Amino acid sequence: MNKIEMQNPIVEIDGDEMTRILWQMIKDYLLLPHIDLKTDYYDLSLINRDKTDDQVTFDSAYAIKKHKVGVKCATITANAQRVEEYKLKKMWKSPNGTIREILDGTVFREPIVVSNIKPTVSTWKKSIVIARHAYGDVYSATEYFVDKAGNLRCTYDKDNDLTDNVLDLRFEGEGIVQIQHNKTESIKSFARSCFSYALDKKIDLWFSTKDTISKKYDHHFKDIFDEIYKQEYMLEFKKNNIEYFYTLIDDAVARVMRDEGGFLWALKNYDGDVMSDMISAAFGSLAMMTSILVSPNGEFEYEAAHGTVTRHFYRHLKGEETSTNSMATIFAWTGALRKRGQLDNNNRLIEFADLLDKTCIESIEEGFITKDLSNLVKSDKITVLNTEEFIINIADRLKEKLSWK
Ligand code: NAP
Ligand code: MG
Q: Which residues pair with 163 in a beta bridge?
């Protein structure tokens, strides 16, 4: 079979530690033998980010704006210990944060579902995707500790206009204060990213907040979603036979526990933070969770939800055997390849991505797994493979399937 051609590149963002090792293996065993891979490559290893004063991170984000599709390897987020370990010029910002800011995107977390790992919630049959609004609310709140009696006053000074009194509250003793905000533009981008993702995946979209209590703040989120849905997406949703519905968060939580899954659940910043941890824990393993950044302009960046798996990397450096699960990183690649295929009308590329996903799932369902799954997979016949064997097992199956084509 001749190799699959690509018309346009994918932005390839390389990273750190164990996931950098997986990255190369995935390319060598699963992609390069079958695809004439075209990528616009950026090395976001911490060493190179330091060398380029983090310019490479900015360049990679602008490249995604240009090419529309990117795939990213996990990267180290620098902290004090890493500054020491890598002798860094400074504590560089999280690359994911920088890329998200530039693309103004929303992160969607989606579990990879296999039949022999049962979610903790027995009714869940399909994946539940979480979209978390990643701006404002409690994450950028102003907090204040009231240490004695006094008055709290908060005003809003409009440019060249009147001043509004927002709050006037008497404290008779100790207390605490928190002031939150959000911006309409950011909520709109979030809403558009959610509607685009649901349409892309052809799944229903649920959105929930606490608007019964928060009659202005949460209600504003609800109104924005409603308005954008009606003006920009309703017809497309109807055409694709999918639904958008808003419900109170209390009701959503109860429904999620009884539903079979297969939908996108959009949540405000804090709710999304907490619920995405709950959903990923209930679906099994962090190593089976993918993460997709979608911008309101329809730019897509695919990655694994887990980090660089540092502990395994140090074992690898000592020459010890590792059994690191590459599923989420493989799915990041297939997600990007499929999206590239869709944008370029490249059916062979789409078919390849689908086939590779299927092959990975089949391999796990037949019991060929990495160590992290050994307690989760319900089956008597399991074979625990090392990092490389796991990928080779998938590569062999893939080669055989492709030889029939
Ligand atoms: P982590 O890399 O996700 O790993 C935490 C632990 O989870 C691992 O030690 C391992 O447990 C298990 N695990 C995660 N992924 C696995 C996989 N694919 N296969 C098998 N086991 C897996 O989180 P971390 O150790 O907290 O963070 C390491 C580095 O990653 C940090 O520098 C952090 O800044 C960075 N990070 C990057 C991203 C990103 O780029 N998106 C996200 C999160 C963290 P056992 O050791 O028990 O086997
Ligand atoms: Mg969390």
A: 157
